[in-house]
Design goal:
The chain has 12 helices and 3 strands; from the N terminus they run ααααααβββαααααα. By secondary structure, the protein is mostly helical. α4 crosses α5 and α7 crosses α8. This is Mitochondrial inner membrane protease ATP23.
């Protein structure tokens, strides 16, 4: 084989690797979405699988409850509607079987939120998934988010963690908290959560992901749209955000 053939072969190989890397968007975490889900007899025997129909019914019931009753989900629904992207829960929210490492996700190709019915089994968990993923949906709708742009991806993960995930309790559970540095602990929690989310959907090294997150962090952490405040656990922040939504034109 000539040097030219070697170069061509190597170029093709690199191209295939790059193509596979670009296609690696965490979809292996959502087997039902890919059409690759199949029950394993061992999981059926221990009760982890085999109840998909019942899980889906319960999940859809919890989704409906959150859409009708959760202040934070209502804020996000109103913000999306005001931004020209109204949410139809039958079209834009899907309860599916997922890998146990994730509780939900957002599919930008279908503009659809995935609620992992086998993981997010309680109303509180479903509320958290909907609020978090609706931040991504909002960014995709209003901010022309490009999920293939690593800085865009890192930014939306920072915003979602900042607005809907990280409280002092969350930071403490992740090992990022300290009673003497609460503000810094919150920022560390957001960075940690964003890092996990980026690594879950992109095949890149941890160091590269950390660098990207640090680069966009100041701007993205300061962006509180459309909620207007950071939601603290066991506080009235969700109700306050709901009452304040009208000031932002989200009704």
């Amino acid at each position: 084989m000539s040097d030219e053939d070697n170069k061509t072969s190597q170029s093709k190989s690199n191209g295939d690797t790059k193509s596979k890397k670009e296609e690696a968007w965490g979809y292996d975490l959502y087997p039902e979405r890919r059409g690759t889900f199949s029950r394993k007899i061992t999981n059926v025997l221990i009760g982890k699988e085999g109840k998909e129909g019942i899980e889906k019914f319960k999940c859809e019931k919890n989704v409906y409850h959150c859409v009708k009753n959760s202040p934070i989900v209502k804020v996000m629904m109103a913000a999306l509607k005001s931004s020209g992207c109204p949410v139809d829960i039958r079209r834009h929210i899907s309860c599916e079987v997922c890998d146990y490492s994730v509780s939900g996700g957002y599919d930008p190709e279908l503009n659809q939120i995935v609620v992992c019915q086998n993981v997010s089994t309680r109303k509180g968990m479903v509320q958290g998934v909907l609020a978090h993923e609706m931040i991504h949906m909002f960014d995709y709708c209003r901010n022309e988010l490009d999920f293939k742009n690593m800085e865009h991806l890192a930014c939306t993960e920072i915003r979602a963690a900042n607005l809907t995930h990280c409280s002092f309790a969350s930071a403490w559970s992740q090992g990022d908290a300290s009673w003497t540095r609460i503000k810094q602990a919150h920022q560390d929690c957001v960075k940690t959560k964003a890092l996990y989310s980026v690594l879950a959907v992109r095949q890149i090294g941890k160091a590269e992901a950390v660098d990207i997150i640090e680069k966009v962090f100041p701007k993205c952490y300061a962006d509180l749209e459309p909620i207007g405040r950071r939601i603290r656990r066991n506080s009235d922040d969700m109700l306050r955000a709901f009452k304040e939504a009208a000031y932002y034109g989200y009704e």
